[in-house]
Design brief:
The chain is an alpha+beta fold. The protein is built from twelve helices and eleven strands. The protein has four domains: about 45 residues; about 55 residues; about 180 residues, Ribonuclease H-like superfamily/Ribonuclease H (Nucleotidyltransferase, domain 5); about 70 residues, no CATH class. The relative contact order is 0.09.
Length: about 425
């Protein structure tokens, strides 16, 4: 009975106060009847004594309910209006309002603190509410018991920054157990090398995971009949290893393929939370360049990994990852360069074979390259490592021996079908 005005009338309480003053009922009995403590009783008796005619227990607020300062009100409507324009853009993969994002935006951008229910109320009052979506038929459960047991790797092609007027690729790698995201990069073009770079980043920093989980994209898996022009009719699914798969093989990392988009969705699409906030922030920051978009992505990635409580695990991904490592619940193993190779450039690379001609040369994308220490008629394996400075290092291997190293411009490897 903490809310006295909901359980008693003024007349009832006045009667009890009067009977106490007339010494008809002791204080402890009145406290028991009203369900109040000693301090509250003496406040009531004091108020009654001072002005018995106007005495009342009815509660009235000093400020109107649901009232917030006008500047906050204006910013809520402003942010909701921005979201509405994003949702109405058919080229952007956002279909709903994100009131939690707006709450964070008010706090970080305007230094204004407001409750989530207040934002939702304003959304309903001003036509910025779409109702709750239908619940998904599947639950994105954690299927693993160790960190490093399953790395979900994927890419998504969307209009992440509408002002840029071009779609970019978002490549991510996320640990299934901890939901810690190891890698997130925006690119204008998707390639085998881009995905090899993602693998290199994860493995060199954390070690070799037990297995990767990917879809059936041609970068990850050769599938018979997908490209009749470029693939011989006698090659069956998995008869030919794509470049990305060869790298994983050299690292002794297994690969699991999703048999359908639905199967992959049952584990986790990391884009839901990340892409939502990435797009909304890119719109508000008027992002037109991919470098600026990457800066925002890095900020959101840090927020996701180190501050966001994951809806499935109910833990912050980084803390869950660190706890798993501390408790030895990890299937990451130390990366070791596979013999006879000598450098990471021999492992995280593009590969192709050529036959040495009688002049000890090979032909590579219309470029004639003389190979030192080569024997005519032998097959040489080229391990090509593109570098950020526009140069690719080619390491020539023959009969398990490194026979030569040369540098060429990255332009020469563009267009080569790896």
């Amino acid at each position: 009975m903490s809310q006295l005005h909901k359980n008693f009338t003024d007349a009832q309480v006045k009667e009890l106060m009067e009977r106490y003053l007339n010494k008809e009922i002791e204080r402890k009995y009145i406290q028991g009847i009203l369900g109040i403590k000693k301090a509250r009783f003496f406040i009531l008796i004091k108020n009654y004594r001072e002005n018995p005619d106007s005495f009342s227990i009815q509660y009235s607020r000093k400020n109107p309910t649901r009232s917030i300062p006008q500047p906050i009100e204006n910013n809520i409507i402003k942010e909701l209006a921005i979201d509405k324009k994003i949702i109405e853009n058919k080229d952007v993969p956002l279909k709903r309002y994100n009131y939690s994002y707006i709450q964070d935006r008010l706090k970080t951008k305007y230094k204004q603190k407001v409750s989530l229910p207040t934002i939702i109320d304003r959304a309903k009052e001003n036509g910025f509410y779409l109702g709750k979506p239908k619940k998904a038929l599947h639950s994105r459960e954690v299927l693993t018991n160790h960190t490093g047991e399953l790395i979900q790797h994927d890419s998504s092609h969307h209009l992440w920054a509408p002002m840029a007027k071009e779609k970019w690729y978002l490549i991510t790698s996320i640990d299934d157990y901890s939901r810690f995201m190891f890698y997130a990069v925006l690119l204008k073009k998707e390639s085998s090398w881009a995905h090899i770079t993602a693998v290199q980043t994860v493995i060199l920093k954390y070690g070799c995971p037990y297995q990767y989980y990917v879809d059936n994209h041609s970068i990850f898996r050769f599938v018979r009949g997908r490209d009749i022009v470029h693939n011989n009719h006698y090659k069956f699914t998995d008869d030919v290893d794509p470049q990305w798969k060869k790298v994983l093989s050299d690292c002794n990392v297994k690969i699991v393929y999703a048999l359908s988009p639905q199967a992959k969705g049952k584990i986790e699409r990391p884009y839901g939370w990340l892409q939502d906030r990435l797009i909304r922030t890119c719109v508000r920051e008027n992002v037109t360049e991919i470098k600026h978009g990457q800066e925002i992505l890095n900020q959101e990635l840090s927020r996701y990994n180190h501050h966001q409580v994951h809806s499935t695990t109910q833990e912050i991904p980084y803390l869950r990852f660190q706890r798993a490592m501390a408790e030895k619940k990890s299937l990451f193993t130390k990366f070791i360069i596979k013999p006879p190779y000598q450098s990471i450039k021999d492992i995280f690379c593009l590969r192709t074979d050529r036959i040495i001609d009688s002049y000890r040369k090979i032909s590579f994308n219309n470029l004639q390259i003389k190979v030192n220490n080569a024997t005519p008629g032998e097959t040489v394996n080229l391990r090509i490592y593109p570098m950020p400075n526009g140069i690719s290092e080619i390491r020539f291997w023959c009969n398990n021996k490194l026979i030569d190293m040369q540098n060429i411009k990255n332009d020469y490897i563009q267009g080569v079908h790896f």
